[in-house]
Amino acid sequence: MLAPMRTLRFWVTIGILFAANILISNLLFSAGQAPTVTISYNTFLSQLNEGNVTSITSTGESITGTTKKAVTDSSGSPSSTKFQTQRPAFATDDIEAIALKNNVTMNAKDPNASTPLWETLLFSFGPTIALVAVFLYLSRRAAGSGAGGILGSFGQSRARLYNPEQPSATFEDVAGIDEVKAELQEVVDFLRQPQKYQRLGGSVPKGVLLIGAPGTGKTLLARAVAGEAKVPFFSISASEFVEAIVGVGASRVRDLFAKAKAAAPAIIFIDELDAIGRNRSAGIRLGGNDEQEQTLNQILTEMDGFDTREGVIVLAATNRADVLDPALLRAGRFDRRITVQPPDRRGRAAILRIHTRNVPLAPDVDLDDIAGQTPGLVGADLRNIVNEAALGAARKGETQVTMADFGEAIERTLLGTERKLLLTDKDRERIAYHESGHALLGLLVPGADPVKKVTIIPRGQALGVTLQSPIDDRFNYGEDYLRARLVGALGGRAAERVVYGIVTTGAESDLLQVTRIAREMVVRWGMSPKVGPLNFSDDEGGMFAQRPYSDATAQLIDDEVRRIAEECQADAERLLSEHRAQLDALAHALLKDDSLDEAEILQVTGIKAQNDSQGVAPRAAATSVVRPSGAGIRS
Q1: Do 289 and 164 belong together in one domain?
Q2: CA distances (Å), 38 to each of 32, 73, 77, 347, in order?
Q3: Please, which residues bridge with residue 86 across strands?
Q4: Is residue 433 part of a domain?
Q5: What average pLDDT does this structure show over 318-340?
Q6: Domain assignment of residue 420, yes or no
Q7: Pairing of strands 312-318, 207-212
């Protein structure tokens, strides 16, 4: 609190000095002197002939002087005994004779006379020298009082300290990631009973790195650890270390660790660690990275310089662990890494129960059913759905949140906000066939995700939407499933070609998805016979990294990506041509009702629902294939 007050006093003092300088420069030199009025040349001649002028001074054609009585001009300027005027170049009067006749003192100044050196120095450098002197004086005073100078406050940590007596979160507020809580329980036990581990010579890791996608609850977990241990919790984002002034970031790191040691046992939490912890050897280092590198070096030094027996543990969170510097991850620093995965169905239901604790629910609300409708969603998404449902119920004047409110909230989250657009009949028909192509292929292609809803009501940035959602959570993706995704994504474009013979711009987002999945199949997952079982992804390379394959391989990759996409396009067109009657029936039903749910789609097409029981292993592939919601959304 002292440092901000000193900084405030400094700037107030500077402002007062600046104002005083203006007063001295503009008012002091003219204090006690009568103001000078500007009069016309006619008025000057009249006053001269009347004998009211006592003296005149000429500087070229400019004339100044004094009068016996105050003079004024017809323009309404204030009266004064001092005046100035300008003699026209075409004037022919004899001022000298008139002045001699009326005993007027005449003077003249050189119009090209130079300003005295002392005056030039005073007005040019005087204010600057005074400001610098005051700045140095106040800086020395602040340094003497331990503030580290006027800029000392910049080097102080901006970490927020949470009250350990009133924790903002505990493990009861965390659900869906029980295995992560179990790993962090050891950290809590150490902070509560450090002697339990120290008596056998063991030590808890200095740093724990939480890795996971955005919204999975990494920050909440860190606060919960502090709440369970009931210790001071210093929280800061990594980007807050870095400033334009070089050296400030490192100073803030030193200050943060000093505060944590003074408050030990304590927890330091650094969010978005990748903002300053990027690999120092990746790509070309630009000048602006010097401050970031100094800050990273200081963090490494501080983590080496303290002992876990001091009771300080560093938690950090990132969703880009692949770009972190290896020095951060070695033993003795962030030597324990915990992956926070998106919750499964049971975990989503537990998260929903936490977020609805203070929400009045209607008897028809089934949280397990809602969890089944939201595969792939993380805790932040589920909290948003609960909030949207509560807001929707409030808008309707309801006293409880119903299942219908949750359904609308899920649609708003997954599909986007409904838009009121005036479409022509021709446009509505094209959109209906486009979405019918997606939906019909979702029923026909083996292994495709079940179609839950199709609508031609504009939502978000799409003119129509087809929602596909798996029955079970998927953790592994086979080549047949990926090809089914490609065929389904190209269904809208294929329907346009089958029905109209031409394509439109409506498949833009579909083509982006097709390109991404097909390239990942070739580059990452070795699903191209010509490229072979190789992984050419360069996620760690950065923008200046060298491509890990030759130009010939790059051309081969492009050819294989095109081949896969074209084969899936041909399959989509073939299937829709073979089932043209069902395509027409589905499109006509959409034109009539605007939206169809799963049961209505099956009834219109006469196709039986497929049993979807696929999906077994790592979720790593999911991030590049499925949207964060986990649902296949076609537009």
Answers
A1: yes
A2: 19, 8, 8, 86
A3: 62
A4: yes
A5: 84
A6: no
A7: parallel
Distance separating alpha carbons of residues 195 and 42, to the nearest angstrom = 101
Q: What is the pLDDT of residues 99-130, one digit of tens each?
A: 888 888 888 776 666 666 666 666 666 677 77
Do 313 and 383 lie in a common domain?
Answer: no
Catalytic-labelled residue, pool 240, 435, 560, 573? 435
125's tokens? 């450098």
Q: How far is CA 372 from CA 80, 348, 389, 611, in A?
A: 91, 8, 17, 16
Same domain, 485 and 460: yes
CA distance 225 to 527: 43
> Which pairs from 615-618 meet CB under 8 Å and 24+ separation?
615/470, 615/472, 615/473, 615/474, 615/475, 615/476, 616/475, 616/476, 617/475, 617/476, 618/475, 618/476
- And the tokens for 121? 């120095």
- Could you give the CA distance from residue 483 to residue 519 in angstroms, rounded to a whole number? 12
**Catalytic-residue membership of 272:** no
Question: CA 94, CA 102: separation in Å to the nearest integer?
Answer: 13
Do 613 and 505 belong together in one domain?
Answer: yes
Over pLDDT 70: what percentage of the chain? Answer: 76
**Which domain covers residue 169, as residue numbers?**
160-340
Q: What is the pLDDT of residues 571-591, one digit of tens each?
A: 999 999 999 999 999 999 999
User: Cβ contacts of residue 584 below 8 Å, gap of 6+?
Assistant: none
Q: Looking at the structure, do residues 372 and 327 belong to the same domain, yes or no? A: no
Most confidently modeled of 22-26, 172-176, 184-188, 495-499?
495-499
pLDDT digits (tens, 9 = 90+) for 453-500: 888 888 877 888 888 877 767 778 889 889 999 999 999 999 999 999
Counting residues of the chain whose pLDDT is more than 90, the rounded percentage is 18
- DSSP-derived letter for residue 71 is E
Q: How far apart are CA 595 and CA 466, in angstroms?
A: 10
**What is the number of domains present in the chain?**
5
C-alpha to C-alpha distances, 69 to 34, 43, 98, nearest whole angstrom: 13, 13, 18
**536 in any annotated domain:** yes
- Picking from 568, 565, 576, 566, the residue whose alpha carbon sits closest to that of residue 441 is 576
The verdict on 186 and 320 lying in the same domain is: yes
pTM score > 0.70 for this model? no
Give the span between the Cα atoms of 446 and 619, in whole angstroms: 22
Mean pLDDT within 557-561: 94
Instruction: Please tell me whether residues 84 and 213 are part of one structural domain.
Output: no
